[in-house]
């Protein structure tokens, strides 16, 4: 996958497909490969852009604290570097925080907004769970153990049927990876959009899993309630990890109703 200079970061990214640009922003500790099952369902209709946030994957950035605002600026800088003026923006989990912040800070770049499994303020349960995951790795747990703990919180009961635990397998997490995760976590802890949601004026779709225990469904409902004229969709039987077969049809239907040409008016009217 290529890399491109964007601000003070060198961003690892991928572009696939033709059509209006659709930027996908992944969640905590994730990378662009999180979208590998969704991209083939989207790239017939859209130019799909995926990338690694600073703090994870192969994106290179200064080893210093950062905020969700910083990550939103990275996304904007990536679009600039790719000569993309505006895009549809989809964010999952922490990526939903980044997508909100991108809309606040760079409204002219966001045509439509899709927020999945996200929130206005980090749930206490999620805060404790992620802190415990990071601590376990600092104490010597493997990356496989980290991923298993993440799956435990983010998947539903059916995911685990017939599977064998891998908590004793795998290689140790490198200190650079761990420090990146820690900086992402601190950015999450500081994020709060509760008083700003009303500023989002672009068409918005909020999607949440019915059985999400990491970020319970009422958090998604609160996001939708705070954005005027947003749509709220619930995927039955889904947890925090949403299946592409469940959310992609909702995304395609939503974007078909709001083509980019529809939003060529005065972008300054989007935030008041």
What are the segments in which pLDDT stays under 50 over at least 5 consecutive residues? none
Give the termini separation. Answer: 39 Å
CATH architecture tag: 3-Layer(aba) Sandwich
Shape: globular
Supply Rg: 18 Å
CATH topology: Rossmann fold
Given helix and strand content, the structural type is alpha/beta
User: CATH superfamily, please?
Assistant: Alpha/Beta hydrolase fold, catalytic domain
Q: Name the average pLDDT.
A: 92
When the domains are counted, the total is 1
Number of strands: 8
Q: Identify the CATH class.
A: Alpha Beta
Topology:
Layout lengths: L2 E4 L2 E8 L3 E6 L13 H4 L3 E6 L16 H14 L5 E6 L1 H12 L4 E7 L7 H15 L4 H12 L2 H4 L14 H16 L13 E6 L7 H10 L4 E5 L8 H14 L15
Parallel strand pairs: 3-4, 3-5, 5-6, 6-7, 7-8
Antiparallel strand pairs: 1-2, 2-4
Helix pairs in contact: 2-3, 4-5, 4-7
